[in-house]
Specification:
Oligomer: homotrimer
Strand content of chain A: 35-45%
Strand order of the largest sheet of chain A: 1-8-3-5-6
Shape of chain A: elongated
Number of helices of chain A: 3
Helix content of chain A: 25-40%
Structural class of chain A: alpha+beta
Largest interface: A-B, 33 and 32 residues
Radius of gyration of chain A: 16 Å
Order of helices and strands of chain A: EEHEEHHEEEE
Chain lengths: ~140, ~140, ~140
């Protein structure tokens, strides 16, 4: 059994941002020398997400708007968590909805994704240093 | 370490549909000859989900209604993604909410599910050929 | 390859409750003797969640309120599933939103979590005996 661990660091310019990380993940799969296995890609923060979707900027704008209007409005006064001095309770709820990690199968040494699937880091409370762990397991 | 990969294909009659795939997944676990491990079941499209829930048709109707009323209304004019000529932005947001993959433990050669847990494919933009990957890893 | 399986049982005092299970999961990772691998933590019921977030009681209150107000109101008359004699359809939809399982990487024999990440069991229909499976895989 082989394993391989790598960390990606992000400091986004905007507070909310969606970043395509497919190439970085593919590079670690290659580095792992795993032909058949799984790669876990997981945000190490509770106000961020990792997800699989479409590389289309209109959709990214839709996702950010939907998180604000439907999922959890930023509105700091609405949440008890923000009485601790934070203002980011909404980012926690957005992370819970979209999820913080994905597992992708590795087949014949490649990410076994569908034709339109790409991997994204979703930053819901950025402008500071944050991290994603990539862990490959297989043979 | 053993691994086993299998693809399921779907062309649903309706645009939104929920399909129980537990038996197909169990069959691949048996074929893999893995006694202890994980099976990943993952939609290869960004407008579909794989999830674990209850085999009860009233609940399936509730899920479809909830996706429309609470999660993301279909309403094509509402989304920027649909300016690319698509009308399925809502299906992307539904996939983000419900998730596109699950991992189930395999214990003593069987899916280690609770008494009411079943595996489902959730098609949110169907009537065309789509695919799910089943990948077993273990020993 | 090593594997290790353990079940946690819960009977919550309240119908909805959030319980920190990080220490229990860490204990099983140690017992597994796995240095590099994955641990799957998965609710065996379709009206519960396992998720990663923050150990902060204000946030837990926010999550419970958000599930009721934004995600899926309990309101039993609203759902077809409840015509089967149940009243818990909302708990199913909450489980679909938050998810029922997480995978955490194991690095150098420890849960490879970020500084604020903790593991939680989310009970959305409690006051009865329910179960979570912990499964470790690695080497």
């Amino acid at each position: 059994m082989r394993s391989h661990t790598h960390y990606l660091w992000f400091t986004t310019a905007k507070r909310q941002e969606i970043i395509d990380i497919t190439d970085e993940v593919e590079r670690e799969v290659t580095a792992s020398d795993v032909a058949e296995g799984f790669v876990l890609v997981s945000a190490m923060h509770i106000t961020a997400s990792v997800f699989v979707n479409d590389h289309e900027s209109g959709l990214w704008a839709d996702i950010l708007e939907w998180l604000e209007e439907r999922v959890a409005p930023w509105d700091p006064g609405r949440y008890r968590h923000n009485q601790t001095g934070e203002d980011n309770a909404a980012a926690h709820l957005r992370s819970l909805t979209v999820g913080h990690e994905v597992i992708v199968p590795i087949t014949e040494g490649r990410l076994d994704l569908g034709p339109w699937q790409r991997l994204f880091y979703g930053e819901w409370d950025g402008q500071r240093r944050k991290r994603v762990v990539i862990k490959v397991l297989g043979a």
